[in-house]
Amino acid sequence: MAPEPPRAPRRPSERTVHAVALTDDYAWLRAENWRAVMRDPSVLDADIRAYLEAENSFADAYFAPMGEARTALVAEMRGRIKEDDASVPAPDGPFAYFSRHREGGQHPLYCRKPLPDGPEAILLDGDREAEGKAYFHFGHWRHTRDHARLAFAADTSGSELYGIHIRDLSSGADLPDVIEETTGDLLWSADGTVLYYIRRDAEHRPSKVFRHVLGTDPATDSLIYEEPDKGFFVSLGETQSHRYGLIACGDHETSEVHLLDLAETAPLPRCVAPRETGVRYEVEHHPDLAGADSLILLTNADGAEDFKLVTAPTATPGRANWRDLVPHRAGRMILSHTVFAGHMARLEREAGLPRIIVRDLASGDEHAIAFDEEAYALGLHPGFGFDTSKVRFTYASMTTPSEVWDYDMATRRREMLKRQEVPSGHDPADYVTRRLYAPAPDGESVPVSLLYRKGTPLDGSAPLLLYGYGAYGITIPAGFSTSRLSLVDRGFIYAIAHVRGGTDKGWRWYADGKLANKPNTFTDFIACAEHLVAEGFTKADRIVAQGGSAGGMLMGAIANMRPDLFAGIVAEVPFVDVLTTMLDDTLPLTPPEWPEWGNPITDEAAFRRILAYSPVDNVRPRAYPSIFALAGLTDPRVTYWEPAKWVARLRAADTGGRPILLRTNMDAGHGGAAGRFDKLDEVALVYLFALKTVGRTS
Description:
The structure is a single chain. By secondary structure, this protein is an alpha+beta fold. 19% of the residues lie in helices and 33% in strands. It contains 13 helices and 38 strands. The chain has an 8-stranded mixed sheet with strand order 31-32-34-33-35-36-37-38, sandwiched between helices. Strands 3-4-5-6 form a 4-stranded antiparallel sheet. Strands 7-8-9-10 form a 4-stranded antiparallel sheet, with no helix packed on it. Helix 3 packs across helix 5 (482-488) and helix 3 (67-79) crosses helix 13 (676-693).
């Protein structure tokens, strides 16, 4: 006999906001000591822990009859992974740096070898560092320019609180300079004696940049920048020329960058251009552009909705001195740029597809690196060099395994360095990838990327998994996934709905899916599902929807809006308690999120708008699809109590009796399990849920 699902006790908490009475029956699931739980999960309140563990036991009981299928699925997915895989080495002076895994290893090894073909040296052993820890994840790692030391960051709780360690590469010993509770961002001075890093504040926000001198007590480190706006996050970067460090501050619509001269012993940050609401910019540097030391900036200033590239003198870089280098063109969105001694490479997207454009900085001549497939993913990876004509990029499609290429920007010669190996075998000819366009209710056309195995019936009988995200301007690439093949080989069609809220069709596509336009994200996703039904790919009772984080909000919204359209919904770390979270300015992400959703504290219109779609607040008595929610106890981005409250409300309101499951990883955060094979077990659960939901057992 199947166990009874847990029923969270109702302990109503009431308040009135903008003359609207709000009742939260499950507010008690938020631990009062949540900040302490982020650092040490063992201090979680006993009642809350008991409820989460009861939900985990219920989910385990649901999956228990599929134990053999689960084991087989994990083995199959693992068989597609080259266990001792290695990245292509990136040259930097006398060495080439790369990462690899050992056979059976969960975590990466960071290595280098002398050029041209010297013996490998392991600089960091992730498996060894992870020993005895329930969770382990490397953050950034950076070597000094003289290759003598390596700084690396590690998170041991899943809460994105990274400890920084510094290793002497001649002896392999770690220095006593251990810096705790950082973001993991790292930046070395030119001489390798100073390390810059960012600490998180009491609300878990990255806000303070410190300067650490090697050999000194981190408690005495100098604060060199503190962000005054709680809505701005701070990050560290470096120009490709290696001359300047970059302190980047911003939210989802505004940015400000400060330069650090890395050749100086104690530089003060210098602002490039003071922040202006709605103006974004990113900075690169060239020491001799048209005879002058210059910055090249990517910006949306002056109405450049899809961004343009401008130059400015490094000495006087303010807005008044910005001059167009690559003017704005509507519909062509410039995503990023990298500046080398003689060339500039930029990644841009037009008509939903990415491309790389190379510019000769002396002549101004430009050419594109071309690709032929109907839908694909493209990445630009510049490496360590500046005085080089080579740039590295990655290419993949939903049928083509990832490829790594070096491209000579002067000769236009490309060389494939590596193609992702699938040990158990993969023939791209066995699969089909397509790009469709679904009509949205307001007349827009929404791109949909499809993957299915040849021979899959296209008569409506095939089950279909529809993935969506739609926030922050993030685009879900139509790239290659070995694990996805396991679902497709079992008869599923896999689809990605490129809904508004991303930048798939330019910045306007993002603006049309945020703030007052947020409902477009939800109706776009529903339109994609309806179009796939209308085109005969599937039927309403054969669709499983999937999304995570802000895409989990999308899952919660469509569950309330069209529960009849979906057989099942997978919501991973779902941001579903939107109104309550946006009303709480003490939570880590709330102030920086107001430009995305609105500030319901001060803006009544934003309050009522969010209230109208916030998934938790719109759960009503109805027959819901099967739902599988996944959470992480130490997640600082989407706190564990959001999916817990959502599932509690769903279970109390549901009239259909389909499974409603919550599984919380008690040892991890937003990204779930950190080990590469442990992750496969989580993927297997999602796929088994999808298979069972549409009536398939394997």
